[in-house]
Specification:
Structural class: alpha+beta
Number of strands: 22
Distance between the termini: 105 Å
Order of helices and strands: HHEEEHEEEEEEEEEHEEHEHEEEEHEEE
Shape: elongated
Strand content: 35-45%
Strand order of the largest sheet: 1-2-3-6-5-4
Number of helices: 7
Helix content: 10-25%
Radius of gyration: 31 Å
């Protein structure tokens, strides 16, 4: 017991001595440390800052609002359905975005960089290209159209910049490079969008419809999709190239939709063509008064003993076509009114026929 008592006394004395020689935890004389001068920003940092300052006023925040009916009292009410991005196309207040951003909206609102919010009306859409145009009535002095660039001369490895509103966080800048070119993605309609730009710049939900810029601050693409099992950026994003945007948007503004070139024919589906063991696209019907009728194209006819197969389209201007999608893709490379050469299987041989493209309804 005496030994335990002595040990306890020794412990207390040791603790008191430790407290005596321990420096105080607080120093009333403490002052902020001196700040080291940073020096000038690096050239690439200055360029990134300039790109954001110049392009950000052209980027908008789009809110889609859906109308719902209360099941109990049948009252109509509105709820925010989703958000996305877009950019100012011209001084008339036209805004370009993705079709999937606005497709299910009952009402649209556009918030500019100065945080003013405007009601938007739909001008038109091109679902096959996942593009849409809406318009606001903001005064021209609030509207700064984005600067257009080119996508034909892009190189893998060059720097790119994305501005948008991921997860509702407006005016967000992410950077990266062109990771790949010539990619293909599927639009909401099931059609393939070709020559898509792949980038590792972080693109998240809410970035859709926003601009992808080059190091000169020019538009080179419209951010449209990400590849990610989790739904967030995993370093693989896709953008519709500006060349396609600059082709489609003027048509939407002029006509409310993408004017697609056609032939005035009805085609057999892939299943029927496959069951017959045929390659290419078979013509079921040639519409009266169409350019196809004027060119002498033949549709499928039913006779007493069965069917007389119509012409089977094998190629457009020498490019092989295998199904409806590839035929449409080839036709859309040309303008309405352009004469093209169709290679057809007719009877037991092949024949080349000149046909003028007409506008499809």
């Amino acid at each position: 017991m005496k030994a335990l008592y002595c040990a306890l006394i020794a412990g207390v004395v040791g603790w008191l001595l430790l407290q005596t020689f321990q420096p105080p935890l607080h120093d009333p004389k403490a002052v902020p440390r001196p700040v080291e001068a940073r020096g000038d920003l690096a050239a690439d940092e200055k360029n990134t800052i300039d790109i954001f300052r110049n392009a950000a006023p052209s980027v908008v925040y789009i809110t889609s609002i859906a109308v719902r009916r209360n099941l109990f009292n049948l009252n109509i009410y509105e709820i925010p359905q989703g958000t996305g991005s877009g950019f100012i196309w011209d001084k008339q207040g036209r805004i370009v975005t993705n079709y999937h951003v606005i497709s299910d909206a009952s009402r649209l609102e556009v918030t500019l960089a100065d945080h003013s919010t405007w009601k938007a009306v739909l001008v038109g859409t091109a679902p096959d290209r996942d593009l849409a145009v809406v318009q606001i009535s903001a005064p021209a002095d609030k509207l700064q159209p984005i600067t257009l660039g080119e996508s034909r001369d892009l190189l893998v490895g060059q720097k790119v910049f994305a501005i948008g509103n991921p997860f509702g966080l407006d005016q967000t800048l992410t950077t990266g490079i062109v990771s790949a070119l010539g990619r293909e993605i599927t639009a909401v309609t099931g059609r393939t969008i070709h020559d898509v730009i792949q980038t590792d710049a972080a693109i998240n939900p809410g970035n859709s419809g926003g601009p992808l810029l080059d190091s000169a601050g020019r538009l080179i693409g419209v951010n449209t999709a990400i590849y990610s099992p989790s739904g967030a950026s995993s370093g693989i994003g896709f953008a519709v190239p500006v060349g396609e945007v600059n082709r489609v948007v003027p048509q939407i503004i002029a006509k409310g939709k993408l004017i697609r070139p056609g032939l005035g024919i009805a085609l057999a589906n892939r299943r029927l063509t496959g069951e017959l063991g045929l390659e290419g696209v078979m013509i079921l019907k040639v519409l009266p008064g169409s350019t196809a009728e004027k060119a002498g194209l033949r549709g499928t006819e039913q006779v007493r003993n069965g069917l007389v197969l119509g012409d089977i389209i094998l190629a457009v201007n020498g490019k092989t076509v295998k199904d409806y999608d590839t035929l449409c893709d080839e036709l859309e490379r040309y303008e309405v009114g352009r004469s093209i050469t169709l290679t057809l299987m007719r009877d037991s041989g092949t024949v080349d026929v000149q046909v003028v493209l007409e506008a499809m309804n």
